[in-house]
Write a structure and sequence with these properties.
By secondary structure, the chain is α/β, with parallel strands linked by helices. The chain has 6 helices and 5 strands. Helices cover about 45% and strands about 15% of the residues.
Length: about 150
């Protein structure tokens, strides 16, 4: 998985965890929502989820925290994300520690918004240079879209 941010269309970007200063830059660049998929206490965490929520709030952005683990990603977590994002403004920055969890969740939201099939979504990601470090991540994206592939608005 790459450490550089990946842009899915004009509204969704996924990447590594931002610092307080990087959050301020995101706000200045017009981002409206920050989605944190990290768990509290992760290695090298610049900000705890609580501290990040406070900074994001001070910057007048919307904060979504959905703790996810690579080893236990579940379809209902994507459903919860879709529900939370239905009330959020875009553009949105999705992150976890290095982007390995943020990328598939951002890709899924993007693919659902665009009505993409699993094959189209995975081809898009691979065309952007996404390298799936764990096959389970690629399989998770495909299985979610194959089972729940309906459009969402935004």
């Amino acid at each position: 998985m790459t450490l550089k941010p990946l842009k899915f269309g004009k509204k969704i970007v996924a990447g590594p965890a931002p610092t307080k200063e990087q959050l301020a830059r995101l706000a200045k660049c017009g981002f409206k929502t920050v989605v944190n998929l990290s768990k509290k206490g992760e290695l090298d965490q610049a900000l705890s989820p609580e501290d990040e929520a406070e900074v994001v709030d001070e910057l007048r952005m919307h904060y979504v925290h959905l703790p996810v683990s690579i080893s236990s990603m579940k379809h209902d977590q994507v459903d919860a994300l879709i529900e939370k994002m239905s009330e959020a403004d875009f553009p949105a920055y999705f992150h976890c520690r290095i982007g390995q969890r943020a990328t598939p969740f951002a890709l899924l939201l993007y693919a659902l918004q665009k009505g993409m099939t699993s094959g189209e979504a995975l081809s898009k990601a691979e065309g952007m240079g996404v390298e799936w470090n764990a096959p389970v991540i690629r399989d998770f994206v495909a299985s979610y879209l194959d089972r729940h592939g309906t459009e969402v608005s935004h």
